[in-house]
């Protein structure tokens, strides 16, 4: 669709449908030029607007010397043009537009209605007005998600970049960074909650933060007790239910099958079980053969169990030092190979290098 048509289409939807086109289950990012045109399209005479009377609440973010009022759902925020313009090209462009005299005002301030969740707007304003908020080690997921959603839509560039960097920190693109996270893993830059793995997958996919997805999908699979469990809803801490969208389910089911299929093949993390005969440098042949047999039997008992990128642990083992070293090296090489193949296993891209975020 030509850009201008897309803009007009978006503005119409904004006005009458109260939101962006979600047909593809994606959250759009408009170009600066598009944003300006959408803003222009919004400044039609109020007589033509079909307004619904709703009870309006004033947010706690209400500055008496504020110069503009934002309204999202039934909540209004009185804030400063200068701060919005300083942080967002959307509002910078919008401020430069001439305001028609008939436009609605609140306490003498221009009123801008946003088709967003009031909570998202609150999280953005909180970050803009309270710099120490962003300096916290961990932020609530809701804040990170709001900064990404509205950061892309209105070009709050710094908020967006900081939120994406938190997401990438928790879901890195290299095995070294993945291994450097706390073990057992717990989110440290985003406050964890029940079902956060599913929320992160949805957020990253809807906002085209593709580099996060392989690790995010892998985390979902690690948590899953079976393929069937991927289809279930998870009750979050606030009582709401989350689940994977169909596109994510397909990728997770496909990735799970592929990982289970290769995890114990030669060249993959658990492939060392196949080296039943110790290498030529083994210093305890009889004992190492016997130990390998025990490991192999235990392995066969749980052949279809999830192992994935699991690091081998040879505690209290009877293997000789040479065999131990062989096994650790085989496991490390296999983990590297599996990590490299994750984007393809989840049918996102052939390799990590081809995962391009659209921010
Ligand atoms: Zn040995």
TrEMBL record:
Gene3D superfamilies of this UniProt entry?
Answer: Potassium Channel Kv1.1, Chain A
The UniProt record lists the BTB domain at: 66-130
Pfam families of this UniProt entry? BTB
Question: What does UniProt give as the signal peptide span?
Answer: none
InterPro entries registered for this protein in UniProt? BTB/POZ_dom (IPR000210), SKP1/BTB/POZ_sf (IPR011333)
What is the protein named? BTB domain-containing protein
């Amino acid at each position: 669709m030509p850009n201008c048509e897309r803009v007009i289409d978006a503005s119409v939807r904004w006005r009458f449908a109260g939101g962006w086109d979600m047909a593809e289950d994606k959250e759009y990012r408009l170009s600066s030029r598009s944003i300006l045109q959408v803003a222009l399209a919004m400044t039609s005479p109020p007589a033509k607007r079909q307004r619904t009377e709703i009870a309006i609440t004033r947010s706690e973010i209400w500055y008496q010397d504020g110069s503009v009022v934002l309204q999202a759902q039934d909540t209004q925020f009185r804030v400063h043009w200068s701060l919005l313009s300083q942080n967002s090209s959307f509002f910078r462009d919008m401020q430069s537009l001439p305001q028609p005299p008939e436009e609605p005002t609140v306490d003498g301030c221009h009123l801008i209605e946003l088709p967003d969740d009031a909570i998202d707007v609150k999280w953005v304003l909180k970050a803009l007005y309270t710099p120490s908020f962003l300096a916290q080690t961990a932020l609530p997921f809701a804040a990170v998600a709001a900064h990404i959603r509205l950061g892309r839509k209105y070009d709050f560039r710094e908020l967006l970049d900081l939120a994406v960097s938190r997401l990438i920190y928790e879901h890195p693109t290299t095995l070294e960074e993945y291994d450097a996270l706390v073990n057992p893993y717990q989110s440290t830059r985003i406050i964890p909650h029940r079902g956060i793995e599913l929320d992160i997958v949805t957020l990253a996919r809807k906002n085209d933060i593709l580099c996060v997805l392989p690790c995010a999908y892998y985390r979902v699979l690690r948590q899953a007790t079976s393929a069937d469990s991927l289809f279930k809803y998870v009750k979050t801490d606030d009582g709401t239910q989350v689940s994977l969208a169909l596109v994510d389910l397909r990728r997770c089911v496909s990735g799970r099958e592929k990982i289970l299929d290769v995890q114990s093949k030669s060249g993959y993390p658990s492939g060392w079980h196949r080296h039943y005969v110790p290498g030529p440098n083994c210093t305890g042949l009889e004992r190492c053969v016997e130990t390998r047999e025990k490991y192999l039997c235990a392995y066969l008992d749980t052949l279809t169990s999830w192992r994935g990128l699991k690091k081998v642990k040879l505690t209290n083992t009877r293997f000789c030092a040479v065999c131990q070293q062989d096994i650790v090296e085989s496991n490390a090489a296999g983990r590297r190979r599996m990590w490299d193949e994750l984007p393809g296993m989840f049918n996102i891209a052939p390799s990590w290098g081809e995962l391009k975020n659209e921010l």
